[in-house]
Amino acid sequence: MASIKIHLDTRKTTKTGHFPVVVRLSHQRAHRNIPTGLRAKKSEFIENGGMYRNNPEANAQLLKILQTYSQRLREIPELTVINASVQQLKSLLHNSEAKAEVTMYKFWEREVEHLYQTGRTGNATVYKFSLSVLHQLHDFCKPFEDLGYKDILEIERKLYARMVKVNSVGVYMRALKAICNKAINRIWWTSLGTHSISTQSRGRGKLLGCFPWMKSVGLCSWKLQGIILSFTAPCGLGS
After folding, report:
1. Mean pLDDT by 10 residues, the chain (239 residues)
2. Which of 9, 42, 67, 159 would you call most buried, defined as having the most Cβ atoms within 10 angstroms of its Cβ?
3. What is the number of other CB atoms lying within 10 angstroms of the CB of residue 185?
């Protein structure tokens, strides 16, 4: 099974006697190094612990790097890991992102850029403007699973407190729903079963259902003013 650790690569040195600190990937009795951008002298580094002797800031940075790559490795399907060479696995780790690394804001921006690149300027403009409005009301620089039921209620409340028209609220919330829909398909549930998100027109109402959808066990619905947004999740997900 593949494993990773922090390692001081002493094969190459600089004129100052520093060596590169790397993430060492071990797989099928072979090894590859992933740069961290940090350097240290032998006397400054504890190899067994994978840390600096007297540099808390650098150690905190190394811990964060190690946690990031560890999470990426855990999220690679086991069969893929078994069949991959150490070089292929290094490429996967270096070029992929763990779910927690993909914030809502980053994902939303990427989707806007993708829509512009594919010529869907109208949708891109709506998504971009919706993000600019909603991000003023709520911090989307967090993973999708951290968006909770109360957050949706609070966003809606703030929109109406700003005297935003019902139709505009519908536009913004449909954009948020669409981004969540795309995230479900691309990040989490692609291989876990059938699922759908539907929109239906109804009378005036209030927010219903359960959130966050990452912990749902069935149907989640947002019933906003004039709109019902339904999230149907595969059975058995979350707890």
Report:
1. 91 85 93 93 92 94 90 84 90 74 86 93 94 94 84 91 92 90 64 36 35 37 43 35
2. 159
3. 12
Structural tokens at position 72: 């990426």
Q: Which letter does DSSP use for residue 170 in this model?
A: H
Whole-angstrom Cα distance, residue 199 to residue 171? Answer: 12
Q: Alpha-carbon distance 87 to 91, whole Å? A: 6
Q: Match 């989640």 to its residue by tokens.
A: 220
Tokens of 132: 């600019």
Amino acid making up residue 67 = Q
CB-based contact 195:234 (threshold 8 Å):
yes
194: number of CA atoms within 13 Å, CB side? 0
pTM for this prediction: 0.52
| Run of H or E residues at 45 | strand 45-46
